[in-house]
Design a protein that fits this description.
Layout: E1 3-7, H1 11-23, E2 27-31, H2 34-44, E3 48-52, H3 56-66, E4 76-81, H4 88-95, E5 99-102, H5 108-117
Parallel strand pairs: 1-2, 1-3, 3-4, 4-5
Helix pairs in contact: 1-5, 3-4
Length: about 120
């Protein structure tokens, strides 16, 4: 089964994503904190990580860090943003994002399908 970690501070939205992924046959771990997601990844070994971007600088740092961690370096990261400013997409891709999803423009089902396209 494909495995995903959902890193999102919004508990309600996170639970909607969890249910959608589980409905589509994914194993799911969820977290509201990056440190917790990293700890969970040690045993879980996700194929995909859905990561909500709060601050661009923090997300760039996380993406670069995750590329150095054996448990996350192979995971494809989908960065979910509320707003995408000029130049941010390029910076996120350079840091290691596989793709970017703009919240409100994709349904949870769209996110699951997008994650499925990132599987090896």
């Amino acid at each position: 089964e494909p495995r995903v970690i959902i890193l999102c501070t919004d508990a309600l939205y996170r639970s909607v994503l969890v249910r959608q992924f589980e409905k589509e046959g994914w194993e799911v771990e969820e977290s509201s904190r990056a440190e917790d997601a990293e700890r969970r990844a040690v045993q879980f070994r996700p194929h995909v990580v859905i990561a909500e971007m709060q601050k661009r600088e923090d997300m760039v740092f996380l993406l670069r860090r995750w590329k150095t961690l054996p448990t996350l370096m192979q995971a494809r990261v989908i960065v979910e943003v509320n707003v995408l400013l000029p130049g941010e997409a390029e910076e996120l891709f350079e840091a290691g994002a596989a793709t970017i999803a703009v919240r409100g423009h994709q349904t949870p089902g769209d996110i699951v399908r997008r994650a499925g396209r990132e599987l090896p």
